[in-house]
Amino acid sequence: MESQSARPEGRLRSFFGRDSFDPLLTIGQMITMQCLFYLSLALTLEVLVGSERLTVRSFFDSSLITTSTTEGWRFISAFACAAVLDACFLCVVVGRAKKCLDFAATTYLVHFASCCAVAGVPKGAGWWVTTGVALSVTAILGEYLCVSRELRDIPVAGGR
To answer: Are 146 and 90 in contact (CB under 8 A)?
Structure first.
């Protein structure tokens, strides 16, 4: 049996063509992205809000994200910084621009479900706007980073 890398069409398919569907890889990437989402959120909340106020409620309570208090703005800033970090993680974990929106949306959908389970359905407009902007930043910046990595020149040995 001839290996796929020995056939020319196999090499081209692996570089240019469709990705083969691997459900275990996809599930692993989703779990990794979700863990990295909460890790980046924890780190940014630690820096911007402080560890003395950091609880599980800090991650899931929509009433904390408000524009009427300084602490609310700190939570909004933490979500914005976490979105930028998550875009970088998307580039590393997923690595394909066409998958960034799917993984970003799944991450924030799981976060929404977690918020509903812990503190009820978010009612404040601040939470919805912050989450929507963070999702957009994560997806768009993640796609940009992946595309710029995919478009890098491939060095050729002996060439200039």
So the answer is: yes
